[in-house]
Design goal:
about 80 residues, transmembrane
């Protein structure tokens, strides 16, 4: 792949990692809010916030996309060494 393609694919991987992490955090906040709402209405649900927390320490895809994106961006920039003729 060319250097421009590496930059584009690297940026796409970084954006995908950010979007995936943001969606997971929104999901965790929604579950926490629903647990708090159910416990305050006395519906018999647990009073502690039980939510499916998926953070980057537990999710391999966020770290994988982040590392792949950074590696592709690093390799897309020219090196300082001159090529022998």
């Amino acid at each position: 792949m060319g250097k421009l393609a590496n930059k584009i694919v690297g940026a796409v991987f970084l954006l995908a990692a950010g979007i995936l992490y943001t969606a997971e955090r929104m999901n965790a906040q929604e579950h926490a809010a629903l647990s708090a709402l159910n416990s305050s209405t006395g519906s018999g649900h647990p009073s502690t916030a039980i939510y499916h927390e998926i953070v980057p320490e537990n999710n391999l895809f966020v770290w994988l996309f982040l590392i792949i994106g950074l590696v592709m961006l690093v390799f897309s920039f020219p090196s300082e060494r001159r090529q022998p003729r």
